[in-house]
Amino acid sequence: MKKPNHSRDKNPWQSAATPFPDPAAIREQAEQKAKNMSLPDFNSMTKAEIQQAFYETRVRQIETELENRHLRQGLEQYADLAELFTAITENILDLVALTDPEGNLEFVGKSHEIFGYERNSLIGENFLNYVHPDDLPRVLDAFKELVGSGAPPRTEYRCRCKDGSYLWIEARGTLLKDENGNLHKILFSSRDITRRKEELRRSENYYRAIFETSGTAIMIIEQDTRISHVNSHFEEIFGYSKQEAEGNKCWTEFLPPGDLEWIKKSHHLRRQDPGAAPSGYEFRFFARNRELRHGYLTANMIEDTTQSVVSIVDITELKKAEQAIENERSYLSAVIDNIGEAIVICDAEGRISRFNKTARQLHGLPEQPVLPEQWAGHYDLYQQDGITPLPREEIPLFRALQGLPVINEEIVVVPKNSRPYSLVCNGQALINEQGGVVGAVVGMHDITERKKSEEKLQKNESFLRAVFESIQDGISVLNNDLTIRYTNSVMQKWYSQSGPLEGQKCYQAYHNRDKPCPNCPSLRCLESGSVEMEEIPGAPYEDSPLKWVELFSFPIKQEGDDKITGLVEYVRDITERRQAEKEREKLQVQLYQAQKMQSIGRLAGGVAHDFNNKLSIINGYAEMALDTLKTSDPIYGNIREIYRAGLHSADIVKQLLAFARKQTISPMQIDLNDTVSNLLKMLQRLIGENIDLAWYPGNNLWPVKMDPSQVDQIMANLAVNARDAISDVGKMTIETKNVVFDNDSCKTHAESTPGNYVMLTVSDNGCGMDRDVLDKAFEPFFTTKDIGEGSGLGLPTVYGIVKQNNGFINIYSEPGEGTTVKIYLPGHTSPESVSAPAQKAGKQTPTGSETVLIVEDEPAILQMGKEMLTNLGYTVLTAARPTAALKLAEEYEGEIELLITDVIMPEMNGPDLAAQIHLLQPDIQTIYISGYTEDAIAHHGMLEKGVQFIQKPFSIGDLGLKVREALAQQEI
After folding, report:
1. pLDDT beyond 50 at 179
2. Helix locations, 217-369, DSSP H
3. Crossing angle of helices 636-657 and 794-804, rounded to 10°
4. Are the beta carbons of 105 and 127 closer than 8 angstroms?
5. Is the separation of the CB atoms in 927 and 881 below 8 Å?
6. Which helix (H) or strand (E) holds 26?
7. Cα separation values, 270 from 211, 249, 251, 255, 263, Å
8. CA distances from 621 to 106, 118, 131, 867, 959 (A)
9. Against a cut of 0.85, is the pTM above it?
10. Is-contact 558 565, C-beta < 8 A?
């Protein structure tokens, strides 16, 4: 940093003392202070103590040097800032001065030389001594306000020069305070505004001259509507002299009574909110001779006053001329609106200014007025094809505005709410007297009907050709001599090896013969004049798939005399039909076999339905009886034989119903998740986009051993059933998970055996099945679909595949509530994993003594559940219908602690039943049971999160744990 130059002149505002003390004086003071200091006794100090003392002395010395260096750097910056301040104040045009709190000048800038004083002669003087006497009271008040409040008011006043003249200045003061917040100095910044004041005075004279010589009548109006000043033109328009008007007239005296109210409101609004009031408007007024004239008034408030300046132009003659023009315009408008051509006119900027009546109709504009900027929103413009949007530069009106020729140009107008119109346009630019373009006009003629006739003719031809080409059978048009005139693409494809067909004889191109075929139907058609038909060999190529065709020959007759002018040969490929006839006998045999199997299947189903229900009850109760008896009990052996006989009888029924399982399989170990995932796209296409497919794969799924193609069959059959059950939109859900069946679990499902299973669940929210249909779901050839729409082998096929792979299947359904199919396939695990998940052998089922109400519409499950809970110590109430359950809950004298209810039942569903019973038994807890998957139920929205739920089939152990879990909530 540059060091300060101490030899240069000091600034007037600087202190007389230098900021740097004299080094010699500092040295003398230091020596004197050192002499007065007591020195340590070095003789009594150790060498280490002496070294430490000198070390500390040296550190203090270095610290002092560093402090001095920082001090000098700060002083150098201070000197530079002082130099910068001096340079600014010496070179700016504004007047900068520094005073004490009393207004005595301590510093003045060079610009003060404009007053003619030496700057040093002003130091110490009070600036108020130089203020013009007339301005002094106002300046003194402003100075007191500045010192008192610190607000920097801007003050204009006159300041005396050395020669006795005065200059106008504008001054603003800023308070400078010391470190304690006390007023220390006042910095004034002033500007010479003498020239501005003189210009203002000249401006006032200028505007006064304008006021008097203006070509319009000008009034200055006071707040009470009294006229205070008028110019000479006012006298000419209104007929009153200045003396008569100024101070004697209110401007409202000239207004008609009917206009007085709204003009007064505008006058009042202008005073309240000048920005909201109209600055100009037309009005009517009375001159002195009571003639009613028209004027245009412009009014504005005069700033910082309550006065308004009003300028009035007499437009009486202009209004008369406008009326004459308007009459002429109305006449021309009537002519334009009533001609048959559509007329559109725009101005020089291309803004549309006029549609005549015909153009409005063609462009779809409504009868009521529409703003010009909204016209284009009512229609679109297209090129001649009616498809390609018309660019702006190609719009006829725009082309005419550019001076380009517009002659018979065809466009299409498409109104938003009407049919399209084809128009032929002619137009030109509008030129004023000076040769400038002031707009453009385009006339348009509607050719829509003519275009329709032309297009209809073309469409008929195109339609016939399209029909001709779209027919999937072959068509040939022949002359009377059997020469081919035209063929469709099918014939070209079938007989492509014959080369171009047109021009050849039909027997040459189609049969590779040199003369007509024997028994030719076309020759017979020429002779008979009627349609002839014959089945004949197809294309004469060994590799051609066209082996046999059915040929129809139609005569083409001339109108009037029925003369045959040609032939149409209609050729249909019947190769597959001829081949199908060979298989007809085989199909007849298969049909007979299918009918026989259908009869056997229905007979088996009828016999097995009731028999299986009885066996389920026999086996279920026999199994529970075995669990309660000891092997030493006398009747234990009898019950065991009954149970074995029941199982054997059930096997006989299964064998009877499984007769359709005849397919050959190649089992292999597969991951069911991977196999199903690969089928998802196929299944989505099969069920359609209107059905949502949800896939919930289980974690760590055990492998299953079966033929992968059987998984395809299972999924395809179940997907088709789901699709047919859903009438419009719906959902199909696929789930997999590992399931362990123990002895208790198997008690509620006669076909299950203990072990590890992989469960595959397929659910839909379709129409569902009632009990009768559900009971026959697995019967071969049983179907609820119309004849020809279903074979009745879908679910029986699934059932056969599952049983063939040592699995079992459950199906749950209610009318209107959808269907859930659960398939259990044996899971292949390691020996460790087989034994580990095991049955809950070492875990005792919890018991209880509370009262439980079971509601279930399946009698067998209802009775089974009652006995399970009774065996666990509970008091069990049962109801087969919701209405019976409500009545029981109302009449039961004790407290019912728990409700166990099916979710889907006749009369009402489980949640609705639970809500009504809760009103009768407020402290009751609820467990829902269902054969549906939780996702399917949630899709119906019947269960909320946190509700206790147990899924069929369940074991006595699962039921006991769930009951205790629900009752535990009651105790919280």
Report:
1. yes
2. 232-238, 242-245, 257-272, 316-337, 357-362
3. 130
4. yes
5. no
6. helix 23-36
7. 22, 21, 16, 18, 11
8. 121, 131, 125, 10, 18
9. no
10. yes
